[in-house]
Amino acid sequence: MKTSKGPSGFSMIELLVTISVLGILMGLLLPAVQHVRATAARISCQNNMKQIGLALHSYHDRNGRLPPGIELRQPTGMLGWMAHILPDVEQDSLYRNAVNACQQSFDTWSNPPHTGLTAVVSTFVCPMDGRLTMPQTNPQGVSAGFASYVGTAGIFITFSPRAESISLMGAMPGSRFAEITDGLSNTLLTGERPPPDSFQAGVWYPVVGP
Question: Is this structure's pTM higher than 0.85?
Answer without folding.
Answer: no
